[in-house]
Design a protein that fits this description.
The chain is an all-beta fold. 1% of the residues lie in helices and 45% in strands.
């Protein structure tokens, strides 16, 4: 007898031994390409004439977990507004696995986030990514997620996993108002000319683009001063009268956001000064101490400068605050009559630096001519303690680092 495949083997998947009737695979089966074969097998005797018989033989292909999941969503980078609410859907990933049953059932997971945290979550079945933490572009502008798609083959050692990276750009919204960084007071010559630039205010905005473009104005107006809307330069509209010696101006900084505009207002003091000698500060060196976590309003030191005439009262003004070569705005304050300098905010050495330079002006109220004197104050916050050893690192709020402060006065004639 002789065996042969009469039909059903068009792709040549099987070989049949004509003498033994044993059926062999000619190459690897692929469940995903063809799941069933119906072979028409004949057997023929050696007589003359020969006689044949036929039988249909079915081969069912059983699936094996030979395919890994494949991401098909196409997402590599997405943009997300920083005001996106918690639980809001930001993307849906999809993946396919050509296998069947649990071999082809895919589950998703976020296995890492950079920067670290749990800012996002993914539905393991449907691949929906949602925000689960607070977004703030001014703190973090970009996240990278590593996401896996894993089939559910059992045991787990037989499963296949595919990874993909998803980049998330945090888009700016206008959620920050401008913050003034310029001095709260300015000394100008009493003989300043009309159109002369006498001061410059400036504010910065932590947002981006037009959301951070700051415009300046005098909301109450002025007949003596003009404020350039773009540069913040303050100039005189005309020569100032002999009296008064002090002017208070309300200044507004407004951003140019398209959806919403935010603004901040502050008062600045303009102090007139003549060439005559002003008050003389009593000391040339002060020392004190201040804790990094001191509450706002903590007294740092006191300055004193007696007036040059009997009929005057001396007032004190901060005309500059610098640290790390950056104007810091009104993070300190000086009492106008007592000269006591206090911190207006809780100081953070890691953010603000170790040294502050304060310009303090003593100005005489009264008298026939305006007289001032300005001193430069250096506040040193050493990294080393008195024993010369470095302070140990500690979590903010869990330790109380105390610094020595040395204040040197350099007298500047005003």
């Amino acid at each position: 007898m002789f065996f042969s495949i009469y039909s059903g083997n068009d792709d040549g998947m099987f070989n049949l031994d004509g003498y033994t009737g044993k059926l062999y695979l000619a190459r690897q089966l692929d469940y995903e390409s063809k799941r069933q074969y119906l072979l028409n097998i004949s057997v023929t005797d050696a007589g003359f004439p020969s006689l044949s018989s036929f039988i249909f033989f079915t081969v069912e292909v059983v699936d094996a977990n030979d395919n890994a999941p494949e991401f098909v969503d196409g997402f590599k980078t997405i943009n997300v507004r920083e005001d996106t609410r918690n639980s809001e859907l930001i993307a849906t990933l999809s993946a396919v696995d050509r296998d069947s049953g649990d071999f082809g059932r895919v589950q998703f997971a976020i296995i890492s986030q950079d920067p670290a945290g749990q800012t996002f979550s993914i539905d393991p079945t449907f691949g929906k990514i949602r925000v689960t933490g607070e977004l703030d572009r001014e703190t973090t502008t970009f996240y990278r997620l590593v996401i896996t798609a894993t089939d559910q083959a059992m045991p787990r050692s037989l499963s296949h996993t595919t990874q993909k990276s998803l980049n998330i750009n945090i888009m700016d919204v206008n959620d920050n108002p401008p913050v003034f960084r310029s001095a709260p007071a300015y000394v100008i010559p009493s003989n300043a000319r009309s159109n002369q630039i006498v001061a410059e205010v400036f504010a910065n905005d932590a947002d981006l683009g037009e959301n951070a473009h700051v415009l300046y104005s005098l909301p109450s107006g002025s007949t003596l001063f003009a404020l350039h809307p773009d540069t913040g330069q303050l100039s005189l509209l005309r020569v100032l009268p002999a009296i008064p010696y002090f002017y208070t101006l309300r200044v507004m900084a407004r951003d140019n956001g398209s959806e919403v505009q935010r603004s901040t207002e502050t008062n600045i003091t303009i102090i007139l000064s003549s060439s005559e000698t002003g008050p003389v500060f009593e000391n040339s060196l002060y020392s004190g101490s201040l804790s990094e976590n001191s509450s706002p309003g903590t007294s740092v030191f006191r300055v004193a400068a007696p007036g040059t005439r009997e009929d005057v009262v001396v007032e004190y003004y901060l005309t500059g605050i610098m640290s790390a070569v950056i104007q810091r705005g009104a993070i300190f304050a000086v009492h106008p009559t007592t000269g006591v300098v206090t911190n207006r905010v809780m100081l953070d050495r890691e953010t603000l630096g170790d040294t502050f330079t304060l310009a303090i002006t003593a100005a005489e109220q009264g008298g026939s001519t305006p007289r001032t004197r300005t001193t430069e104050v250096k506040l040193f916050f050493p990294l080393r303690d008195l024993g010369g050893a470095f302070k140990p690192a500690c979590a903010r709020g869990n330790c109380d680092v105390r610094w020595n402060i040395s204040i040197n006065y350099y007298h500047l004639m005003g």
